[in-house]
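Question: Now follow the chain.
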Amino acid sequence: MVRDSGRYNKFKKRYFMVPDISNDRRSTSNPHIDHMLDGRRELLSLYVKLAKIQPENMDSEDQDLMEEFCQALVDYIAAAHFCLYDRIESGRERRKAVAEFAQKIYPHIEESTRISLEFSERYNSGIEQKDHSNFVLHVSKLGEYLTTRIELEDRLIQCLLPSAPKIA
């Protein structure tokens, strides 16, 4: 199983060297958000492994990783929705600044959700021969959308929980 270490190193530098609250081991004091952040850490760890897959040389181990990643992706999207956006969508959020910020970022979150679910539907059951040439592009595109989503979610968490660890 040959891996593209250049793509891996680029991703690692971009996504794991940037401090964010998800890397802080201190609790946010909200167990639901802590659970979501744990799911995020798992998702990012799996993404790094996924980015090293060479689709033309995919084996059963890679397929298992793909399925595990797609499940973690869907779980993370669902957890983020219920932890962060459900209260806002239902109108229960009374802090004006939080509600306004959430409304501002929600179109970006919706778009990243759409891209994530499309990726999961396309690749959860494996990579078809016709998809080999697009796999790297789709993984890269997903990574870009997840990066934006994570940055926005971290800012929203700071609005929701001002005492949460600060983003550097």
Observations:
- The CA atoms of residues 56 and 122 lie 16 Å apart.
- Residues 1-5, 11-27 have pLDDT under 50 and may be disordered.
- The radius of gyration is 17 Å.
- The first helix runs from residue 5 to 16.
